[in-house]
Every structure is written in structure tokens, then in C-alpha cells.
Amino acid sequence: MTQSDLPVTAPEPLPAPVIDSHCHLDITEEYSGLTPLDAITAASAVGVSGIVQVGVDLDSSQRAAALAQRESSVVAAVAVHPNEAPGVRQSGKLAEQLDQLAELAVLPDVVAVGETGMDFYRTGESGREDQEVSFREHIGLARATNRTLVIHDRDAHDAVLRVLATEELPERVVFHCFSGDAEMARICCEAGWFLSFPGVITFRNAPALREALTVANPDQLLVETDAPFLTPAPQRGRPNASYLMPHTVRAMAEEIGMPLDQLCRTLRDNTLRAFRMPAGFTG
């Protein structure tokens, strides 16, 4: 693939490699036409050397695990997404699907259980109990399999923190697409959890998120695309992909006042620790 084949012009490469801690390569292909292999190649060319491919239901989790097995720069996370959880539970299939996810979670290239959590933006009150039940079950699965717990929290900060306070958690917890304020960032860092920041920090209407970034412990910072969503400026409004993540990394470096090369090394080291990457991972 050449630069002219990309849907959006690639940014200048980063001075040191980083890892996209949360991506949906399969959905990226639907939105932009980039195959997973093309997306991985384009990302590598700009210094995004590895990708955490995240499942949102049983089928996509199986695909994520299979992709991670094929590609040494990709690892997988498996789960039923909070917005899928009410339908799955009400159909009586949650326990069965959790059993199948447990089989995936112990595979060598599967490093996390998630994304799981609570979402009050897309799911109304009638589905919140189902989300919480699913969230608690996923926490138990992450703990039982010694995998990182990846949390989706949208407009549900208090509920998510309440659940976490009442469960025995796995050793490693990541807040995907962190969207809390500075106070929540302090709470999460004090608990030892990792905070993953997306392209939203480049948005003009996100000053509270930038403040949260500045108060977070640098050793607990991760970066992600959540591709094909949350495309950073100056490409906001177009489908996201991992090769666009340098825009976000540069914005993070400027916001926290850290040299870009130092931040890249910090983010990569943090991601390796957060997900306890397998020996064969080349990202």
C-alpha cells in the first residue's frame, strides 16, 4: 500500500514506536475499506508498531483472537460490549457466551477481557441492570484468567466506580477512551489503573479531558484510536485508523509538556505493562 492509497493523508511518523491500545480493525474495514493487513502496514509506517484488536461480541471476539494469532504485532481483547449485553442477557445466552469467551481469553495472544462496563448514553434505564450483571461477570472472567480488564465507561462514571469498588479486581485495569474529569483521573490513578486517551483530546470542546490528562500519572497513560471512531483533528469527521494516531500522541506531548520521543517510549512501556504482552508480540 502506498500513501496515495490511504483514505486520509498520513501524518509525519513518530520518533519512537507506540502501540494503539484499543482498535477495531474489522469495523475500520467497513468504514474506510482498509483491510486489517493494510491498516497494520500503514500504522507501522508512521511508528504505530502494535495494535490491541478489541471484540465487541462473541463473533468479533473470535475474529480478534484469530487475527492476533496470525499477526505478531496484534493482540486481542474479547468481550460482550455493554451495549450488546442487554440483548444477550435477555435472550438467555449470556452465560453460554461467557463460557465461550473464557475459552478465548486463555489463548496466548488474547491479553484482555473487554471492552466491558456501562454505557448510559446508548442504553436506557431498562438495560442498565443487564449491563451491570454483564460487567460484573466480565470482571470475574478477567480475574479468573489473569487478563487485563478493559472498561468502556460512557456517561456512567459513578456507576462504573461503584461496581469496581465492590468487586475483587484483576491485577491490571484499563479505562478505554477515558472520558472523566481531573478528579476522576486522580481517583483512577490512585487505584493504580491505566487511563487510555483517544483523539478526543484534540477536539476544541474537550478542555476537561485535557485537564484530566495533565493530572494523570505519566506512568499510567496509554493512547488509542478506538478506530474507526473518534478521529483526531485535523482529520475529525473522517473514519479513524491506527495510522492517524500520531496526531493524538503529539497533542498529548504538547499538553503535558513532555518531549515527544520520551512520551512515545513512556506510552509503549506502559502499554506493554498494562497488557502483559506475550513473548511473541512484536509491537
Short description:
The chain has eleven helices and eight strands.
Structural description of this entry:
The protein is α/β, with parallel strands linked by helices and 283 residues long. The protein has one domain (16-275): Metal-dependent hydrolases (TIM Barrel, Alpha-Beta Barrel). Helix content is 43%, strand content 16%. It is built from eleven helices and eight strands. The protein has helices at residues 25-32, 36-45, 58-70, 85-90, 94-105, 128-145, 157-165, 182-190, 207-215, 245-256, 260-275, and strands at residues 18-23, 48-54, 74-78, 110-119, 148-154, 173-175, 194-197, 221-223. An eight-stranded parallel sheet has the order 1-2-3-4-5-6-7-8. Strand 5, helix 7 (157-165) and strand 6 form a beta-alpha-beta unit. Helix 5 (94-105) runs parallel beside helix 6 (128-145) and helix 8 (182-190) packs parallel to helix 9. It is globular, with a radius of gyration of 17 Å. It starts with 17 loop residues before the first strand and ends in an 8-residue tail after the last helix. The mean pLDDT is 96.
